[in-house]
């Protein structure tokens, strides 16, 4: 199956593909060349996803400011909320 161009993937599609890449790399059954190609694709997916998240956050901030709402604050999990440190 041909891979979509990164800019044509939705955020959700990017996450699904990134998850698949991680699973394939963790299995350790790929050749070095295949692993490197997947690793590079994964890095690119990660960068594109981060950019999309930043754009969405900026849009939310602008919408909140237009409506006179409070600005966004950073979200920090306390150790009690998530002892393992992983996102749920």
Could you explain the architecture of this structure?
The protein is built from 2 helices and no strands. It is mainly alpha-helical and 88 residues long. Helix 1 runs antiparallel to helix 2. Residues 81-88 have low confidence and may be disordered.
Mean pLDDT: 82
Mind summarizing the main beta sheet?
none
Tell me, briefly, the overall form: elongated
Return Rg in Å: 17 Å
* Continuous helix count: 2
- Give the helices and strands as they follow along the chain: HH
**Number of DSSP strand runs:** 0
Q: Give the N-to-C terminal Cα separation.
A: 31 Å
Bin the helical content: 55-70%
Strand proportion, as a percent range, falls in under 5%
List keywords for this structure.
0% strand, mainly alpha, 88 residues, single chain, disordered C terminus
